Amino acid sequence: MTLENNILKFVSENNFRIKIVFGYCSLISILFCCNSKAQIISNNGAFLSATMGTVIGTDSIFNNPASSLINDGILNSFTINNAGNIQGNGTYNVSKRFSNSGTFTPGTSSVNYTSSGDQIIATVNYYDLNITPTGSRVLTFPSTGIIGVANVLSLAGGGTTYSSDGSTLNFNGTSNQSIPAFPFTNLQVDNAVGATFSGTSTVSDVLKVNGLVDVPPQNIVSVSFPLGGYLKHTTLLPGMHVSKG
Known about the structure:
The protein is mainly beta. It has a domain at about 105-225. About 5% of the residues lie in helices and about 50% in strands. It has 1 helix and 24 strands. It has one helix spanning about 25-35, and strands at about 1-5, 5-10, 15-20, 40-45, 45-50, 55-65, 70, 75-80, 85, 90-100, 105, 110-115, 120, 125-130, 135-140, 145-155, 160-165, 170, 175-180, 185-190, 195, 200-210, 215, 220-225. A 13-stranded mixed sheet has the order 1-2-4-6-8-10-12-14-16-18-20-22-24, with no helix packed on it. The chain has a 5-stranded parallel sheet with strand order 3-5-7-9-11, with no helix packed on it. The longest helix has 8 residues, at about 25-35. It is globular and about 55 Å long. It starts with a strand and ends in a 22-residue tail after the last strand.
């Protein structure tokens, strides 16, 4: 472990591992307190583990190929760049960007997008995906890829607006999920227990359901199709009421 040019580097040597177990003032936090120049954590082939109760704060985390990070604590970072393996049941507070070209295993973790400026949602599988209300900004769902949600999708209101450019939102939990009101481009439900719409939603391209979808009678689901699209089968007619169950 070295501190070079404001970068705290972990390099694998003989299966080097470090477990951060110091609670709120973790080992990494202690290093930051002692030398405020440490702004970046760079993991190069090492195994890092942050236990429950640990709080880590940094500008950027680079989890490079063949590197592992297990987060069961709270990780606060402007950017997370993952090309290795990240897993755990902790909290990730991302105030700028989350980039993933490696493996992200969510466990029962929460990923919170907390910036007061515009952000892009990473196309990974989340357990809890939370957009915190911080004022006027644009949250962009990318043009390709699948964004999975295994538990809760919480969307900020107020001045937050959303751009859905073509990616698919997939509700893939194992207990009943709530689908919030949202202008979906592609919506997929892979939940055998079921999912319930909690507000008025639109699906402008593809709606795919492998399981149950419950539409309460006070809510509306609108399905529209691009040029050349078609609906294979429906028992609904324009103006019909949708009954629960």
